[in-house]
Amino acid sequence: MIFHSSVQVLGRFPSFDLETIRTEQSLARVPIAAAMKAGPAHAAFVSALPQPWRSDPGVEIFSRMLWLKKGFYPLAPHYHCDWYLGPSKPKVETRMVLLGDGSRTEFVMGSLELPDEPPGSVQIPNRAAEQIAEGVRTERLRTWFLEPEQLVLFDSHTWHRASPAETSGWRLLMRAIRGLPKEGQDETRHGNPGPFTTVRTGYYPHTPEEQRRYDAYLR
Ligand SMILES: [Fe+2]
């Protein structure tokens, strides 16, 4: 199947100072009404949702408030798609904004042809990583970095990965998700809320010494 990987920039999100951002809550896939109480930035994010999203009871808000040290990642930096349900399944949409300092998400722009396999297969991400590296090298694909305060829309066929924080600081990522299967019909490994939606900071070793020290945690 062909993944059309792209991001649409919808506009600029209002500025919030870091003292405000650091007091926002992290939300693990909650309904819109609950997100209104998670802080002023969350309230602004929810208020900016278009009416069809606001009136859709299936829309969920998922956010992460992190403090990242320079060089740390908000999650393991492998290419992936958010909420991919399978080759013939409907797409899930995400509206997202990044606030504060730290890591910018790197998106892949262009089309990738990958095996028709269900989510959870290791073949798809492995093949995608190879294709993305080759596509970028030959300029058939390009990557694009999300900037803070850019409101974006993408779907579950959009490949992306985390990048290391450029400075130490607070980072808030807020997203609204539309089109996820209802609880009990979720065929993916993403439970609701599930371990994927817990809050954590990811560390990724770089130097040979760091990799040796970290090796024990990978077993
Ligand atoms: Fe993601």
Q: What layout of secondary structure does this protein have?
A:
Elements: E1 2-5, E2 8-12, H1 18-21, E3 27-31, H2 32-35, H3 40-47, H4 51-54, E4 60-68, E5 93-100, E6 106-113, H5 123-137, E7 142-145, E8 150-155, E9 160-161, E10 169-178, H6 208-218
Antiparallel strand pairs: 1-6, 2-8, 3-4, 4-10, 5-8, 5-10, 6-7, 6-9
Bound molecules: fe (ii) ion (FE2).
Residues 80, 82, 160 line the site of fe (ii) ion.
Identify the notable features of this structure and list them briefly.
219 residues; alpha+beta; Jelly Rolls; six-stranded antiparallel beta sheet; four-stranded antiparallel beta sheet; 6 helices; binds fe (ii) ion
Low-confidence stretches: none
Assembly form of the protein? single chain
The counted number of beta strands is 10
Tell me the Rg in angstroms: 17 Å
Number of domains: 1
CATH topology: Jelly Rolls
Specify the CATH architecture: Sandwich
Distance between the termini: 33 Å
Quote the average pLDDT.
88
Taken from the alpha-carbon principal axes, the silhouette is globular
Spatial sequence of strands, sheet with the most strands = 2-8-5-10-4-3
CATH C-level label: Mainly Beta
Question: Total number of helical segments?
Answer: 6
Main β sheet profile: 6 strands, antiparallel
Question: Structural class of the helices, strands and pairings?
Answer: alpha+beta
Ligand inventory: fe (ii) ion
